[in-house]
Specification:
The structure is a single chain. This protein is of the alpha+beta class and about 475 residues long. It has 6 helices and 23 strands. It binds 2-acetamido-2-deoxy-beta-D-glucopyranose (NAG) (3 copies). One 2-acetamido-2-deoxy-beta-D-glucopyranose (NAG) binds next to loops. InterPro entries: Stress_up-reg_Nod19. Pfam families: SURNod19 (PF07712).
């Protein structure tokens, strides 16, 4: 009797110690301290009241080597390094994408745009897309939209108060030497679209790229019924400035200041991919749908018509259901929407919610709190990664106020998806799971010590029992 009890005690403690030693949380606790961070500045954008810059840069500063990116945060700053408020220069968006370029090949802006339009078929496992020339291989996000430019990171005006942190132990893997085509090196492309609204007649109208405020000509790209959107605020267009606005020399240079956090890659880091789910995606389930990228045409922007009757009911609800063409685990979710946005939700078929992402509006003038602008989005870090199976349908819903009309709004969910959970998947008793999940090293050490004491006590009890009943059991290895 005593013999049996001793044995089962030892076995379960041995298993527990084992689980803690190799548990994912423990594995990553070691690397947590190794998160590095660096701040960079883009090349300058020269702005004047009402001016628009939609610039592409082909070789941005970025941490090099085989790394796991944990976050990418950015904001516009002026020459002196001060934050520029959205009501002076609206950050329409920035987008960042890695590309493999043949060593010595110099990518011009023209080449980039050409490549962006002519990108070809995707390697589904690695998100690599051959460029128009054999000198370039794009590293895209994992889907779903079949857009020519498919960035890994990028948002807009809400950047200052939106978390992009990829939770531990996950990170976005970049620069794996085994993936790098021979003779190529990794470069970073960046697109920055900024609108200077100082002195303009309608700041939010300029930010929404309303065509009637811009000096654009109706023609090929801009059809008469196109009311607003990025075609009307392309590079070097001009938004209407107030009559009598003091036009002294207001030229100024601004920069995108971006902060990258990363870890050096090692086996304790779990790779995660970036997917963008777009509410304007044209995808519909048809017989034989695979969900592949070729099936996803995305308009990216859409308009919100003003409601007929004033009042509380003026909400524009746009929904889209998409089949997920992957197996994985969602570890972080956030939405991107524009001013006028009321909220967004992502849910499973049948209604189970995955994430509700809500806009934060500013109520002042200082950067990060600009009244009338979306200055941040809430994001979700599911307690347990949300398992998604190939073929499953997720539904997104984007709400905008239609009290007034809006042009060129967006509805995008970005989801960070781990292909695997940390191995091995030994489930710990709830108590220990809660403890190891806490980010406190102290809590972990405390748990370890308690377990060590319990195990040692058990070992002593076990040895005593052994001596008492003479049963010889294999030695306990800790
Ligand atoms: C719009 O204005 C800008 C700045 O004055 C000018 O450079 C550009 O050529 C104008 N575009 C059109 C289509 O008139
Ligand atoms: C306006 O100011 C900028 C920066 O302060 C300067 O580079 C530029 O030469 C000035 N332009 C004129 C016309 O004075
Ligand atoms: C969107 O609006 C609908 C209708 O008013 C409402 O039922 C839903 O909860 C809203 N969703 C979000 C995420 O705000």
């Amino acid at each position: 009797m005593a013999r049996y009890r001793g044995r089962s005690l030892i076995s379960s403690f041995a298993l527990l110690v084992n689980a803690l030693t190799i548990s994912p949380s423990h594995g990553f606790l070691g690397t947590e301290k190794k998160i590095k961070s660096a701040v960079f500045l883009s090349p300058k954008l020269v702005m004047n009241p009402g001016s628009v810059a939609n610039a592409f840069f082909s070789d941005m500063d970025f941490p090099r080597g085989h790394i796991g990116i944990k976050s990418f945060d950015a904001e516009l700053v002026d020459e002196a390094g001060n934050s520029v408020p959205l009501h002076e220069t609206y950050l329409h968006h920035f987008a960042v994408a890695p590309v493999y370029a043949r060593k010595g090949f110099k990518l011009s802006q023209r080449d980039m745009l050409r490549n962006l339009v002519l990108g070809s078929k995707q390697d589904p496992d690695r998100n690599l897309v051959a460029g128009w020339s054999s000198d370039i291989v794009f590293v895209n996000n994992a889907g779903l939209c079949n857009n020519p430019f498919r960035p890994l990171f990028g948002v807009g005006g809400e950047t200052r108060k939106t978390s992009t942190y990829v939770p531990d132990p996950y990170a976005i893997e970049i620069g794996n030497p085994e993936e790098t085509p021979a003779g190529f090196e990794l470069k970073w492309l960046m697109n920055i679209h900024a609108i200077d609204t100082r002195g303009t007649v309608d700041k939010l109208g300029c930010a929404e790229c309303r065509c009637d405020l811009y000096n654009v000509t109706i023609g090929q790209e801009i059809k008469p019924d196109y009311k607003g959107g990025y075609h009307c605020c392309s590079d070097k267009t001009q938004c209407l400035v107030r009559n009598g606005f003091d036009n002294g020399n207001k030229t100024r240079s601004i920069y995108l200041k971006y902060t990258v956090r990363w870890v050096d890659w090692d086996s304790s880091v779990m790779p995660a991919k970036v997917y963008l789910l777009d509410v304007t995606d044209s995808w519909e389930r048809k017989e034989g749908s695979t969900g592949d990228i070729q099936e996803h045409d995305c308009a990216v922007e859409y308009d919100v018509k003003p409601c007929k009757t004033n009042g509380d009911g003026c909400v524009d609800v746009k929904k889209k259901s998409l089949m997920m063409p992957f197996n994985g685990y969602i570890v972080h979710v956030g939405a991107h929407l524009h001013s006028g946005g009321l909220g967004a939700s992502l849910s499973r078929e049948g209604g189970e919610g995955i994430c509700t992402s809500m806009p934060k509006y500013g109520n002042g003038v200082e950067p990060g709190n600009e009244a009338g602008y979306v200055v941040g989005m809430t994001t979700c870090y599911p307690q347990e990664p949300v398992k998604v199976s190939y073929g499953e349908t997720l539904t997104m819903e984007f709400n905008y106020s239609s009290a007034i009309g809006h042009t060129g709004v967006m509805g995008i969910f970005y989801i960070i998806v781990a292909q695997q959970l940390p191995e091995p998947e030994i489930s710990l008793p709830a108590l220990f799971q809660a403890q190891t999940k806490s980010e406190s090293l102290l809590a972990f050490l405390a748990v370890t010590m308690v377990v060590a004491v319990v195990v040692l006590t058990a070992a002593v009890v076990y040895r005593r029992q052994n001596r008492e009943d003479g049963y010889h059991y294999q030695s306990l290895s800790i």
